[in-house]
């Protein structure tokens, strides 16, 4: 099933259950503390908090999201991506656990044709109500696992709405990994859908619950990319229909097909960077701009390691579906050319330093200040060589540099 059909099936199902479709929220959010929209519920935070009324008690969206918390795992796992699309159904003081569980199970099996006996559920340890509800829907007890709050409690990682979750996983089979459910192997048992029972107001951490929200709400997120991976019978997120053109462009750029993890990393990073550039973000040294810069620099470095010595990311950027070319391509090409110059200059110093043992703070600072070598890239390269880095020393030198700069301006 193609991605556009997955989206249409989702909307048809929940539209038939009186959910009003809303446009996706902006990828560059106004929410303080968030660089980018990382979940479908972000635009609805005021509704969950009782600060304003939703246009309808039941809503649904298809939201493009960006998360970079797992950036080091891209290409190494099947299921991670920095950019993805999340399908969500939401209820504000309307239905709650029973309905959201029943409808998710119905849509996955009857709507998308997944085998019921390959679905596993997780719940927050101590939430026996959810266990009983799943069992009442015919899910065997042995396919319901109780996990801790790191897995089954959701918040925005900031003060705001939060609540326990129940997640739905699909068993991809013994060829992928070990048996034992999602508690044992999250590659074989891939998470598809997160049902959040939004009922608490979170403080400064997930351990600080300030009280109940004005109502009990539902916030769900079905990963379209992961569901497409399962329904299309491909091995990873970068091989689904909407991403394949970019993966193909990367392979053409390298002229080789023997480094799948590297190709997938470049595909993921360029695709997300292009989407962010199209949303108005430009590469820079801080905040959102640094995310774009970091993604493109990681992609360029991987291309260099593959033996690609000339700029090639322009055509790769053009391959990203749903994004217009033109200025976006120009930004990518300009950033690639600049960073290739940085790499050529900085690599000589870095190679010499790595051969001499641990990297001192002064060396890391010189790479950053003189050659524009980002510290996170230095750390990443050093880790690949098994060499430690004095990041504390670098941070101290950076503070001293900034203090001198402020004094000079005054």
Poorly predicted spans: none
CATH class of the largest domain: Alpha Beta
Measured on Cα atoms, how large is the radius of gyration? 23 Å
Q: Kindly state the mean pLDDT as a whole number?
A: 94
CATH superfamily of the largest domain: Bira Bifunctional Protein, Domain 2
- Number of individual domains: 3
The name CATH uses for the topology of the largest domain is BirA Bifunctional Protein, domain 2
Which CATH-level-2 architecture of the largest domain?
2-Layer Sandwich
The main sheet comes to: 9 strands, mixed
Individual helix count: 14
- The secondary structure category is alpha+beta
Task: Give the quaternary arrangement of the chains.
Answer: single chain
Helix fraction? 40-55%
Helix and strand pattern: HEHEEHEHEHEEEEHHHHHHHHH
For the termini, the CA-CA separation is: 62 Å
The beta-strand count equals 9
Instruction: Identify the overall geometry.
Output: globular
Description:
- This protein has 14 helices and 9 strands.
- It is an alpha+beta fold.
- The N and C termini lie far apart (62 Å).
- Helix 8 (260-278) runs antiparallel to helix 9 and helix 12 (361-371) crosses helix 14.
- 43% of the residues lie in helices and 18% in strands.
- The chain is globular.
- Strand 8 and strand 9 form a beta hairpin.
- Strands 1, 2, 3, 4, 5, 6, 7, 8 and 9 form a 9-stranded mixed sheet that branches.
- It has 3 domains: 3-237, 2-Layer Sandwich (BirA Bifunctional Protein, domain 2), CATH 3.30.930; 244-353, no CATH class; 356-410, no CATH class.
- Keywords: Aminoacyl-tRNA synthetase, ATP-binding, Ligase, Nucleotide-binding, Protein biosynthesis, RNA-binding, tRNA-binding.
- Belongs to the class-II aminoacyl-tRNA synthetase family.
- Its EC number is 6.1.1.7.
- This is alanine--tRNA ligase.
- Residues 1-410 form the Alanyl-transfer RNA synthetases family profile domain.
């Amino acid at each position: 099933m193609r991605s556009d059909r997955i989206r249409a099936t989702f909307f048809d199902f929940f539209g038939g259950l009186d959910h009003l479709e809303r446009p996706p929220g902006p990828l560059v959010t106004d929410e303080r503390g968030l660089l980018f929209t990382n979940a479908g519920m972000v635009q609805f935070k005021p509704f969950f908090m009782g600060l304003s009324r939703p246009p309808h008690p039941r809503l649904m969206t298809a939201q493009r999201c960006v998360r970079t918390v797992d950036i080091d795992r891209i290409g190494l796992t099947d299921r991670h991506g920095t950019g993805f699309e999340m399908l969500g159904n939401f209820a504000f003081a309307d239905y709650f656990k029973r309905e959201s569980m029943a409808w998710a199970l119905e849509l996955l099996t009857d709507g998308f044709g997944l085998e019921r006996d390959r679905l596993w559920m997780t719940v927050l340890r101590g939430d026996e109500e959810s266990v009983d509800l799943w069992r009442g829907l015919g899910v065997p007890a042995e396919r319901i696992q109780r996990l801790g709050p790191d897995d089954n409690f959701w918040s925005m990682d900031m003060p705001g709405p939060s609540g326990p979750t129940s997640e739905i996983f699909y068993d991809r089979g013994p060829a992928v990994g070990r048996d034992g459910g999602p508690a044992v192997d999250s590659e074989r048992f891939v998470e598809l859908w997160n049902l959040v029972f939004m009922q608490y107001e979170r403080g400064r951490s997930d351990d600080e619950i300030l009280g109940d929200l004005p109502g009990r709400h539902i916030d769900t997120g079905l990963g379209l990319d992961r569901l497409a991976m399962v329904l299309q019978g491909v091995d990873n997120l970068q091989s689904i229909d909407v991403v394949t053109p970019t993966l193909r462009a990367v392979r053409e750029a390298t002229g080789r097909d023997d480094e799948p993890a590297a190709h997938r990393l470049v595909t993921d990073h360029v695709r997300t960077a292009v989407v962010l550039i199209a949303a108005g973000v430009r590469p820079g040294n801080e905040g959102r701009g640094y995310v774009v810069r970091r993604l493109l620099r990681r992609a360029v470095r991987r291309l260099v390691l593959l033996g690609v010595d000339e700029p090639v990311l322009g055509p790769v950027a053009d391959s990203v579906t749903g994004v217009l070319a033109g200025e976006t391509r120009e930004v990518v090409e300009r950033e690639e050319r600049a960073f290739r110059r940085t790499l050529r200059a900085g690599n000589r110093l870095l190679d010499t330093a790595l051969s001499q043992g641990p990297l001192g703070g002064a060396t890391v600072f010189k790479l950053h200040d003189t050659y524009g070598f980002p510290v996170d890239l230095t750390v990443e390269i050093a880790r690949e060589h098994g060499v430690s880095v004095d990041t504390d020393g670098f941070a101290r030198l950076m503070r001293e540099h900034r203090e001198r700069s402020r004094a000079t301006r005054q």
